[in-house]
Amino acid sequence: MQPLPSTNPWDEDDGFHEECGVFGVWNASDAAALTALGLHALQHRGQEASGVVALTDPGSEKGVFNAHRGLGLVGDIFGDAKVMAGLKGRAAVGHNRYATTGETALRNVQPLYADFEFGGLAVAHNGNLTNATALKRALVRRGCLFQSTTDSEVFVHLIAISLYANVVDRLIDALKQVQGAYSLIALHHGALIGARDPLGVRPLVLGRLPEGAMVLASETCALDIVGAEFVRDIEPGEIVVIDDSGLRSINPFGRQQSRFCIFEYIYFARPDSVMEGTPVYGVRKSIGAELARESHVEADVIVPVPDSGVPAAMGYAAESGIPFELGIIRNHYVGRTFIEPTDQIRNLGVKLKHSANRPMIEGRRVILVDDSIVRGTTSKKIVEMVRQAGAKEVHMRISSPPTTHPCFYGIDTPEREKLLAANHDVEEMARIIGADSLAFISLDGLYRALGHARRESGAPQYCDACFTGDYAIPLTDLVGHPERVPALLAANGQ
Amino acid sequence: MQPLPSTNPWDEDDGFHEECGVFGVWNASDAAALTALGLHALQHRGQEASGVVALTDPGSEKGVFNAHRGLGLVGDIFGDAKVMAGLKGRAAVGHNRYATTGETALRNVQPLYADFEFGGLAVAHNGNLTNATALKRALVRRGCLFQSTTDSEVFVHLIAISLYANVVDRLIDALKQVQGAYSLIALHHGALIGARDPLGVRPLVLGRLPEGAMVLASETCALDIVGAEFVRDIEPGEIVVIDDSGLRSINPFGRQQSRFCIFEYIYFARPDSVMEGTPVYGVRKSIGAELARESHVEADVIVPVPDSGVPAAMGYAAESGIPFELGIIRNHYVGRTFIEPTDQIRNLGVKLKHSANRPMIEGRRVILVDDSIVRGTTSKKIVEMVRQAGAKEVHMRISSPPTTHPCFYGIDTPEREKLLAANHDVEEMARIIGADSLAFISLDGLYRALGHARRESGAPQYCDACFTGDYAIPLTDLVGHPERVPALLAANGQ
Amino acid sequence: MQPLPSTNPWDEDDGFHEECGVFGVWNASDAAALTALGLHALQHRGQEASGVVALTDPGSEKGVFNAHRGLGLVGDIFGDAKVMAGLKGRAAVGHNRYATTGETALRNVQPLYADFEFGGLAVAHNGNLTNATALKRALVRRGCLFQSTTDSEVFVHLIAISLYANVVDRLIDALKQVQGAYSLIALHHGALIGARDPLGVRPLVLGRLPEGAMVLASETCALDIVGAEFVRDIEPGEIVVIDDSGLRSINPFGRQQSRFCIFEYIYFARPDSVMEGTPVYGVRKSIGAELARESHVEADVIVPVPDSGVPAAMGYAAESGIPFELGIIRNHYVGRTFIEPTDQIRNLGVKLKHSANRPMIEGRRVILVDDSIVRGTTSKKIVEMVRQAGAKEVHMRISSPPTTHPCFYGIDTPEREKLLAANHDVEEMARIIGADSLAFISLDGLYRALGHARRESGAPQYCDACFTGDYAIPLTDLVGHPERVPALLAANGQ
Amino acid sequence: MQPLPSTNPWDEDDGFHEECGVFGVWNASDAAALTALGLHALQHRGQEASGVVALTDPGSEKGVFNAHRGLGLVGDIFGDAKVMAGLKGRAAVGHNRYATTGETALRNVQPLYADFEFGGLAVAHNGNLTNATALKRALVRRGCLFQSTTDSEVFVHLIAISLYANVVDRLIDALKQVQGAYSLIALHHGALIGARDPLGVRPLVLGRLPEGAMVLASETCALDIVGAEFVRDIEPGEIVVIDDSGLRSINPFGRQQSRFCIFEYIYFARPDSVMEGTPVYGVRKSIGAELARESHVEADVIVPVPDSGVPAAMGYAAESGIPFELGIIRNHYVGRTFIEPTDQIRNLGVKLKHSANRPMIEGRRVILVDDSIVRGTTSKKIVEMVRQAGAKEVHMRISSPPTTHPCFYGIDTPEREKLLAANHDVEEMARIIGADSLAFISLDGLYRALGHARRESGAPQYCDACFTGDYAIPLTDLVGHPERVPALLAANGQ
Q1: Predicted ipTM of the assembly
Q2: D407 close to D268: Cβ distance less than 8 angstroms
Q3: I want to staple D285 with a disulfide (CB 3.0 to 4.6 A). Which of C91, C422, D150, D315 is the partner?
Q4: What is the CATH number of domain A17-256?
Q5: Closest residue on chain D to C348 (Cα)
Q6: Which portions of chain A are predicted below pLDDT 50?
Q7: What would the CATH number be for the domain defined by D278-332+343-450?
Q8: Measured between CB atoms, does B106 come within 8 Å of chain C?
Q9: Given this model, what pLDDT does residue B25 score?
Q10: How far is CA B115 from the centre of its chain?
Q11: Looking at domain A280-449, which CATH architecture does it have?
Q12: Using a CB-CB distance cutoff of 8 angstroms, which residues of chain A are in contact with residue D141?
């Protein structure tokens, strides 16, 4: 899916955006309600649009698809009893995403749905295809008409034109043609299908409801909210077909070493999720402790940049013995828009999302802990705010290595020239954001916190391309677009 | 103002609701934008509607009033550049409140505005009048027509019918007739006026912008966001008149001992605000420490009920030496509505706002720290959720004394029969909410944390009626409505 | 009520606007639905906003008022089954009016409603008070707060402050203080009340439903749609009180000669209404015949300017023997807005509402028949359009005398300097609108068509102030505003 | 296009619905505004949705397409200056249609737009394909994904998969595969293309703006509104390609005798349009005169059922010598919805669109003239209404022959079993609608009024299938659906 620009002129958040959460359930009563709840728990993965497609009579050709989608939060889109009453069905698939406003955008809201020769199919897709543009060009040449601007529609056309008779064979046929990092959930009258890219970059988990119905979701927190028991992660490259006879697993790509997205642990996933067997919250605290060991500095107080910096700051405080305080308060009531700042307002350095808790900061040496630095604009404002509140010293500690490379695997990052760490060394960065000192966790420290070496038995363990430029999946669409290609690509032989 | 019911059938929050935040500024450029920002910082005091009235040419009779109000969050109401462009003026007053949806409610959104013989007047009011019904009856008998259902309109009519020539004299005339707990800010072409009730129950602070313009606001956090310096609290019973010649203070009621609302410290105020000279965040941590001393119990982990329980839990953890962990994650993406739960969904015990961070809880003895218990329904769900996540023991610690009495001074509390602590002793309450143990801070402990005795030199220091039934302001409208009168009233001679 | 400007930049209609239709019913099932239907039949009297207030249990103090109002057409405002379900009651009063968009305007939409000492009262008012400004000034001085900008609210305040105990006495008290031309319908728990100004300028009729329930309405066409039988016109200055014991008539002003608005016959009323005993359609045809006798000209075809010019054109054609043809087609699909015309579009002389039926016009001598000329801009465009369609000659015939004076009695007319006939003689007007000849019916001819002399037994029979400047009701609010006073006023001693 | 049901439970109109108007312009300034105006003039051909696609730089590959579509009237959809400002371009194509509300319907609103290998293409289509279902089935089998439920999308897919390189060749390729009655206008960067089905059933005319730009439209009334001169009708089966080098005409189907839709003259077309050289208004009057000659009856007054019955009634009156009067008034203020009628309201026989002008009817023998009888429900209500208004006799005269067969060529008609004339003879019909007598014009009389024989030189002149069952275009999609096939089909060898 394409990144979509924020329309909020006040937007202080120059961070990363996870793109999309997916959820599916087969043969349970209230399937659409369960899906809406699951999407609610996955709201942090996409807050701007959601959709649910439900299916009556799963397993029977009589099944009817009912759909609803909208712009906004899950609670608002599915808060109308009439909407829910219309989403009849015992199976469902849902999707959260970013979207701009208006009609044009609405057609991009997933799940995508199409009528095929074999019946209807709804597809919810999290991730990014790296050869979508090339595929789209070929499909248009063949006479395919594209209705959305999401690369997810490429899947749908590939399925439509596949010569295989069976929907699962068609899906495999399509997956073999695409490159990229993705998880997807598809629903047709005969089965709920889950699929994960061959390297397992994007997450997808399997759960089971008390009465036995199977659930697929991006994260375990979505299992928790519906009371589903965690069964296992879907394997890299695995396709699971859930129907009334149970679950069937297909591995069309053969076994491959997983290269799960390391940034899910640092920032994207919800802290109460467990990913690939490891609790996210615990990893974040361990990173904080590692960071304290690597880059200790004398100070009076550890202050997290809320909310994402909190666990690392707790780990840092515990390891360093310096007190942890909520020295920055987050305002959670930021709507979708806010007034255009005038010059005067801009000069006030007004921040809508954060405010300094002055009594905790005034006259103190402060260590700020945050998860990452992207463009550096937010860090600069935060440091400035903490200084205005009277801090004697401001030291910034970051619970990820420097982000030097854009992500092409499903995370919305700016182009390389806008990544502060791609263009400046750490000292320069400290000066730019105005901190007395700045330190990032080392790549090794990060892997230590995760309990792994970077390579084990010669095999890389995670996708860490945003820190290393080690892009494990070909970037086909970038060929011929050198302006979008990170400098290291050639060097890396990719 | 009247309490308004939540329309969210999923609403898990059975807590208190602060009612209203107010903000005003005199003779500053971008007055409406500053006011919208101030209201944004005060959003926690009322999230359902907001309004701003701006005045061009303050100090001149040529001034024109421009107004905008709406239902929803400040950012959404004032996010339209055209709206802000229409709010021309160098003085402004604004208001946040609760409101139901629809047109009927819109007429209740403040600031109220009316044309008087002396010109226009906009009034923003935080608090509650305890003789509003009696006054309204008399005013209607006299021929006054009421357009809203807020008791704030009583002020406006009293000003309208006052026989004094001058707007300040009319306002004093009105204030002398009302009983209650309130702060108000009024704007007319000649001045910005602030007033606080004689006991100073509701807060109001004075600030100064860098270029010297005066600002009034409910809390200091609203001064911080606009870059205003804190000057002082408005005194109990004080009226301040801000015009181009500066600030004039009037004390029509004489000096009285302040009885500031003690619950502002425990729950209502934003943690980064400083109230009556005392930082709110620090008080909360002290209460937590006091609570640990009073009601220690063996446990493995301290878990706050987010967000309001966090500082007290930190204080508790520091005092007790038991580790503090984010064992409950709050979902901040709860919109205004959500799907009607079916029975099946209800049986899942689904919680929209909170989820357990299972790895931090499983197999552990957990101390939950929360700020208060109102009906007990939320506490029950939270305890249940923590047990389902595998806690071995669940001990609940509350950073306020038992809430035994409703508030009639501006906070939306349920009637007495719905207050758990009004009808059950602590042991019964523990059983009802399902906790292994339950403890509240003592009233003395609370005062200790605040650094005061309950009475000093014989004078009570705070309004603590919700814990004690000691209602310091007459409850005139309750006379003849015994069903609304708390049982203790008679006993207390009120 | 105040005239409100059109927001349609394409607006070709520079004609008169009737202001408001009213409807009321007492003690019938489906009272709100009947009222919505009545308002639909009266839609020509006000197309921009409507409201209905219904009352359960009419005749009992237990009755509850339910209200709904909105901007737009009756069918759209009351087209929602939920809205109608909410308007429970066996009595109702409704109102059509003009209104601008947005919230500010909504508070002006009638019926106005207020809570009084004696209970609730809803008031729907058609017409204009000529001393409203003076009364409002006095009421504000007394402490009354105005919420709308309609002069109708003056009634409500006068009722509120009246010292009489009984609502009917209070209403009479109020009516005795106001000057103007109006019909009003009021509903309180004890009765439905109708009132007409002492000269009976604005219409109000009484009907009876098959089961006996009484109905009040502006025109008989609203009785027809609900199947009510016409009973009689309400008399000038009469107040009718309809309650469960029947109908009581009060004449607080004594009998006066009616001076019914003559323009209702010419243009405002719906052609199928019968006013003061005379069918409107028949009058219009008679005017056309009179006009043919007075101002015959050789021609090939009579073409009405649709829709209002059709009956007069038919009468003209029948009298003159020249064929009647629909040479101009009206487009009824004109919504509330349309694109801003660019210069190029403007030069095309595009007309949204009318188009020439070229085959009926080309090469012919055409007599156009229209009801009035106000500013002349529409007539000019129509003549131009007919010439462009190839007419050899264009003669304009108008079924009213020249409109030389504004109306202050409830019709939205432009100021005097914008009335073409106030500033130009007929020959100049013909030249301005581009017609080969122009003729208006004479005042005597108009009275002949109505079957009356202008004065009978010395008494004037109609209000014809727009043609004569003979303003029968004092224009109090104009005193001191000479710019609004027509030149003839002084001459007429008013 | 498919017929879409009315959502108005009050809908009294059981008549025919024309389906769609189209408009296009090449290389003119304000192209989108001209198109919106043209659509406004064609509003009678589709009132529920409209769209415009504009193209900057027509003739250049740099051209950018801008689009806007919406539900409602043209004036409301294009009434926003920002919308029009966004529709930049010097070429445009637009479409009016029926549509239900909501998002699902929006995707059906034309012009359809798609990106092809050769660039973008916008298509506006009026009419109906009779093999759309069969084609769609084959296209889906091939892997085409359908996004709308209109048969117009079949065109777009056929163009997309065509193997020809050139867009015009692809369009011809597509047209050769479809069967049906249609006019279409397509716009791509190189040309504006118009096409009419081989029999010319649906209309399409060519015009020229003063500066020379070419215009295509469904009817001449759309040329008139933009000041374009009528050039000629597009020929049956003709394709016109308008680009910067002028107009090129292609006749891929060879010359065929036109079989223009005879119902356009009777009802669909606007009376001021000229179709195939014949003025519509004149035809209608001639039909009325023919009808008077064929089915004279003694009466006092001729009353048209407005608005469509007016010209025929005038012709009838002129021929018969009986006076013509507007005995039924039409209420033009009917919005899109209205209150659900309760039983009581239903029993009142309430009519929202028509009301009797009682003084013209009471005590008289009335001849009603209407254009057609479809289900008969409207005629029944009208006759009833006229009787209730006191008519002594009611004779119904219809300006078309009995409608015995549904239209499959672009007009929304009910199935055969709902057509009153398909199931009853004229006497029964008279009894059903409650008229004292009923007569239709004969087929021969209709052709006489048009100045043609039914067959000239052996060739049929018009499509009159709705009266005769003589379906000139194969009804492929009906094969296998006998329930939809009119009984006469087999008999007619079709």
Answers
A1: 0.90
A2: no
A3: D315
A4: 3.60.20.10
A5: D227
A6: 1-13, 99-104, 485-494
A7: 3.40.50.2020
A8: yes
A9: 98
A10: 29
A11: 3-Layer(aba) Sandwich (3.40)
A12: 117
